[in-house]
Amino acid sequence: MSAKSDTPPASDEFDLEAEFRRSNVQEVLDKLDRELIGLQSVKQRIREIAALLLVDRARRQLGLETGAPTLHMSFTGNPGTGKTTVAMRMADILKNLGYVRQGHLVSVTRDDLVGQYIGHTAPKTREVIKKALGGVLFIDEAYYLYKPENERDYGQEAIEILLQVMENQRDDLVVILAGYADRMETFFRSNPGFRSRIAHHLDFPDYSQGELFQIAELMVAHQQYKLSPGAITALKEYIPLRMKQEHFANARSMRNAIDRAKLRQANRLFEKRATKLTRTDLMTIEAEDIRQSRIFAEPDKKRG
Question: Which contiguous run of DSSP H or E holds residue 81?
């Protein structure tokens, strides 16, 4: 599809900087930097997409014929690497630049799209698409839509509807497919229609030990807690041990670790309930709140 202005442009100049400021895209990019540690390659790609959309907007306003940009995306990476957060900020950018009407994010999995009996899948899929129109549809673990080993599976029906919508309503809906990199590659090989409609492939790497510690610190501060010096040491020892365990999920695992430390802190304070508590007491996570994790007791066992 091509877009061309019906009337000649009033000027042959476009103030890209003024438009950038007016769009508040920089605020969204700054928010993404605050929300997510690391992921520099992902953040750079988001900035490049924003730049592409700004320049496309300038071209259209100056009467230059241009094709509507294809904005469907694929996010690949392990759990807890920030895929959903980046999708939310991408929706904000698309809304600010006028490429979607509402800028909301609808996050779904196979169960939200695929029915269990004949005639159930199409209405379920269309209802999800209806909710997502004007924004971004984020399909997590998208490869589960395709189950060729099951002849009675209805995922293919959802795929066909999605492919049609991605082509015919791409000016009102952006679809982001997400999941593990190897499984997504297999999915695309089996469903070339999806690959041909995806313009942007973003890979989300695992976080390093240092980045995971920074993420945990941000989570603690955001919840108005603080780590004692001993707790800092304990957490730095905890992280590499947790990374070796099964079901490690990057930032998600850090959030769970902090939640459990808060639980232990609460129990510790409750045991001293005869003593009046200070604000510092209520805020401080101590080393023992972290070291009580069974990971320290049995580091060689594969436990979550």
Answer: none
Burial label, 194 (beta-carbon count in 10 A; 0-12, 13-18, 19+): buried
* Residues of the chain above pLDDT 90, percent: 67
| Whole-angstrom distance, CA of residue 286 vs CA of residue 264 | 10
Question: Could you tell me if 154 and 114 are in contact, meaning their C-beta atoms sit under 8 angstroms apart?
Answer: yes
SS3 202: strand
Q: Which helix (H) or strand (E) holds 108?
A: strand 105-108
C-alpha span between 286 and 266 (Å, rounded): 11
Q: Which long-range contacts (CB under 8 A, 24 or more apart) does 53-57 make?
A: 53/93, 53/94, 53/97, 53/99, 54/16, 54/19, 54/20, 54/23, 54/25, 54/97, 55/16, 57/19, 57/97, 57/98
Range of weakest confidence among 29-33, 208-212, 255-259: 29-33
Written as six digits, the tokens of 165 are 């919508």
pTM of the predicted model as reported, rounded to 2 decimal places: 0.86
Specify the length of the chain in residues.
Answer: 304
DSSP notation for 143-197: GGG--TT-TT--HHHHHHHHHHHHHHTTTTEEEEEEE-HHHHHHHHHH-HHHHHH
Separation CA 73–CA 203 (nearest Å): 11
Residues 136 and 91 sit within 8 Å (Cβ to Cβ) = yes
